[in-house]
Every structure is written in structure tokens, then in C-alpha cells.
Amino acid sequence: MSRSILVFYGSYRTHRMGIRLANYVVAGFNARGDAAELIDARAIDLPMLDRMFKEYPAGEAPGPMAMLAGKIRAADAFVFVTGEYNWGMQPGLKNLTDHFLEEWFWRPAAIVSYSAGRLGGARASVAWHATLAEMGMVVISSTLSVGQIGQALDAEAIAIGEGGAALERAFPRFADDLAWWTDAARAQRTKVKPPY
Fold it and tell me: Quick one: 98 exposed, middle or buried, by C-beta within 10 A (0-12, 13-18, 19+)?
């Protein structure tokens, strides 16, 4: 059975290199038979957080926020593709994520990080792990970290060079891990109502 996977990307920068990685991840899951969709925070462009989706009266939330809330509730799993800004999270992706809470509950999440340097956004990945867990997601242990992003993927999101080869080797295990947890969570939700 196809898995519905939302892939979130959050850079607002003019020359976004990480979009290559987000597109690579979407294509990789779709090639495996899943239904992956890119959610680009810049394209949705939610305002800085004032009220969460749940704090709006029914039918009064901004259209893009309501649309995204429905997609999140319907998804089986999530992937967060994040760059690292000064050892921390991208503000655009964090802002988008914080507009929702219960919509995230009881689904697995995976983290894919990148940077222009060698560390591949590892410090942002660590920060995201705790945040996503606090928001009710089960964060899988497998991660992807891509350093020197501009030398690992070309503009069409095709793996190139040593970094791209490493990504190609790592992606199948990462995807298998997310698939296992996605199937387990989906099966459990059909058997037992979540505890809250």
C-alpha cells in the first residue's frame, strides 16, 4: 500500500541549494511507490506565528493554513529537510511547523539535513529531533546528512560526485526505516485509538 509522505522544506533564501535535496527525497520516495509531496514553506508563506491553526474559529484560518492542516492530518509520515543556520534551525521551516500541533500526532518523522560545509547540517538535525518529538511525532533513528550540498546534487536534483554517491548509498536504508515505522504506526492507529 502506498504511503502518503509530506516532505517539508523551509529555506526562504534567493539561491536555495537545499531545494535540490528536498526534490531528491520526493523523487526517491515516489520511485519506491510512495506518494511523496513537497511542502515548500516559502511557497505557502505563512505569517510569523501569531495564532496556531487550532486557535482560529472553525472556517476562519487563512486558506493556505487550513489546506496544509488537512494535508498533515491525512499524511502517514513526514520528512523535514533542513539547512543549518548558525548551529540552529531554519526559521522558515520552524515557523511553518509551529502553526500546527495535534495535526502532527502519532506519525513518524524523519530528518534530512544539509549544509554548504562538511558537517551536513548535523547540529540542526539534533535540534529538530527534540522539537519534532515534543510535537507528538515519533522521530526515526535514521537520518540523512549531506555536506557540501552544491557538490552532491546538481540543479535537477541528480546525485553527483562523492557526496552524491554517498547519498545514493544511504537513501535506501533511510527510506526503509521510515517505511517500517510508517506501516507500524498506520496499523496501530487502525487497532487502538491514540491515548490522547
Answer: middle
